[in-house]
Amino acid sequence: MTGIFEQVMIGLGYFVFLPLIWWAGNGLIKWVVTSSVKTVVPQSSISPEQGGGSEEIQTSSQQQDADSKELRAGRVIGGLERLLILTGLLLGKWEVLVAVIALKTTARYKELDKQIRAEYFLIGSLCSILWAVAIAVLLLLYDRFAGFGLFPSGLLGQLGLPGLKI
C-alpha cells in the first residue's frame, strides 16, 4: 500500500503531459515549420524609396496584424487538435485521429490551392499528429508502469511492444 504522498505525486505525474502536448508541441511545430520553409520577402514590404507608396506600407501593417492573429489562432487550433488526438489514442479510438484530419482539411480546403500554404499546412499537421502520438505512447507507458492504470491498453497492445503484458 502506497502512502497518500506517493499517490498524489503519481497523480501529478499525469499533469506533466499537458504542457508537453500543448506548449512544447506548439514550440516544436513552429520550429519545424519555420526551419523547413524558405523565408520569402513579401512584395508589400517595399519601402517608399523603392517605389512603394504609403498605401502599400499600411497594407503591409494590416497584413502583419492579420498574420499575427492567424498565428495565434493556429496555435490554439494545434493545441486543441493534439489534445483531441491524445484523448482518442488514450481511449484506443483511432477514429478521432481520422476525424481531426478530416476537419482540418475541410476547414482549410480553399487555402490548399496555394502551394506554399499547402506545404505549411502539411508540415505542421503531420508534425502535430506525430507529436500527439508520441506523447500518447509516453503517457500510456507512464500509466502502465508508474501510474494508476487508468487507460485501456489498446494502443500499447497494438504496438506490440516486447515485454508488455497488458
TrEMBL record:
<keyword id="KW-0812">Transmembrane</keyword>
<keyword id="KW-1133">Transmembrane helix</keyword>
<protein>
    <submittedName>
        <fullName>Uncharacterized protein</fullName>
    </submittedName>
</protein>
<feature type="compositionally biased region" description="Polar residues">
    <location>
        <begin position="56"/>
        <end position="65"/>
    </location>
</feature>
<feature type="transmembrane region" description="Helical">
    <location>
        <begin position="12"/>
        <end position="33"/>
    </location>
</feature>
<keyword id="KW-0472">Membrane</keyword>
<feature type="transmembrane region" description="Helical">
    <location>
        <begin position="119"/>
        <end position="142"/>
    </location>
</feature>
<feature type="region of interest" description="Disordered">
    <location>
        <begin position="44"/>
        <end position="67"/>
    </location>
</feature>
